[in-house]
Design goal:
Length: about 70
């Protein structure tokens, strides 16, 4: 059994689309095609992977504050 763990067998790997689906569910913002392309480019210039990561990162602090106020 130790050999299997060392070889990576039996170790569950995340699916490549799982994180994308989670972000899609979390950030349900829709843009016109040209606006989305522009925001994606802007996000990359700022060092983000894409517009979704930019939006999520910028909203994390606000979401934490809102949760604290709600409790």
């Amino acid at each position: 059994m130790a050999d299997a763990a060392q070889n990576g067998e039996g170790v569950r790997k995340s699916r490549s689309g799982t994180n994308k689906r989670r972000l899609d569910a979390l950030v349900g913002v829709r843009f016109h095609s040209a606006d989305k392309k522009a925001l994606d480019q802007h996000a990359r210039r700022l060092g983000f992977k894409n517009a979704q990561h930019l939006i999520v990162t910028r909203l994390e602090d606000d979401l934490a504050a809102a949760r604290e106020l709600a409790s």
